[in-house]
Amino acid sequence: MIPEAKNVTSPSKPLVSEIVLCYNQARFVVEALESVRGQTHAPTELIIIDDCSTDDSVATIEDWIRKTGVNCTFIRHSQNLGLCKSLNDALAVTRGKYISLVAADDLWLPDKIAQQVEQMEAGPDRVGVIYSDAFQIEEDGTPLPEMFIPAHRALAKPPEGDIHRTMLEGNFIPAMTTLIRRKCFEEVGLYDEELFFEDWDMWIRISRSFDFAFSPTPSAKYRIVSTSMVRADRERMQQAARHLFVKHLRRGWLDGAPRETAVRCLVAEARAAYAHGLPGRNRILLEVLKYRLRPGDFSRWLLSACRVSFQTYSRGATAYRAVKQFVTRAGRTRWHLASSR
User: Fold this and answer.
1) CB atoms within 10 A of CB 93
2) Which residues contact 209 (CB under 8 A, 6 or more apart)?
3) CA-CA 20 to 30 A from 273: which of 56, 71, 191, 331?
């Protein structure tokens, strides 16, 4: 659980917890840390977490801390635990009213925290997250022409208020631009450590209970790195997205098109469990029938329950489709012959 916020404020400004997450970003981490150190808002607390980097990230961070004399908390994982677990470990030591996160290969612009805190403090308590657009840069820092949000989602304008349904249709929020009210984590919980990525699931969960606000001023730079998680392990990203949809389906949070997408993901998960003979395959095959009752879904569950292998089922299904296709073609041929007489 996230601890209660401490009453650490200036006479007029709230404490902001700044989290920098690093994994094998020795090339960029100093630039990221300097962008955090250069924020014009005070007071802040800095938490740096390294998820067992195999490059020189830890030594680089320690050298930066020593040279700058920055007061911070540096968490070093002795084994790689993943993005969500790392963020949860960082959140466990935060004290701020607001929380902002940045990966060690991205950058904040100097007034990012100050502008967003001012907007958050002036707005209603039901606003849980403020976000903005972000500039995109190449690995060497060269600016790219397209902004982050248009590159990830075609939107008439950045949505605000109750954006839950919009979030279900796909993620578009640059995580490094967000300022999150601590109350959000207290209400919806921490990051799901079964997921490969953190932000989309969290935005969906927060948007069920809180409004989102958009800041028109870009607040960060998003670096497109060839070895980034999205590019390096797209298969695991896709698996995590399927897991996310199924999780929200089981909680009864979906309807319409998002529900249909989630059901397809659950069917794919059930087929894979059957194909690989996984324990619990009968349970998940039966679960599919709660959301969709089709002959193929029912036959897979029934044959699996009767201990018929997936290979036998597949051969039968292939034969059935072949016969069905033959009968359909034969019927069309007879109709054409009859109509030509």
Assistant:
1) 15
2) 128, 184, 187, 188
3) 191
CA distance 70 to 47: 11
Instruction: Give residue limits of the domains in the chain.
Output: 16-229, 235-310
Residue among 128, 127, 132 at smallest CA distance from 148: 132
* pLDDT given at position 9: 47
Is residue 49's pLDDT more than 50?
yes
CA 336 to chain centre: 54
Alpha helices in the chain (DSSP H): 29-37, 57-68, 83-91, 112-122, 148-152, 164-168, 182-188, 199-207, 229-232, 234-250, 256-275, 281-291, 295-305, 310-340
Q: Is the pLDDT of residue 282 over 80?
A: yes
Contact 57, 104 (CB under 8 A): yes
> Nearest Cα to 151, choosing from 164, 136, 137?
136
Distance, C-alpha 10 to centroid of its chain: 33
CATH topology of domain 16-229: Spore Coat Polysaccharide Biosynthesis Protein SpsA; Chain A (3.90.550)
Out of 42-46, 186-190, 219-223, 226-230, least confident range: 226-230
The label of the residue with tokens 């997921």 reads 195
> 185 near 91, Cβ under 8 Å?
yes
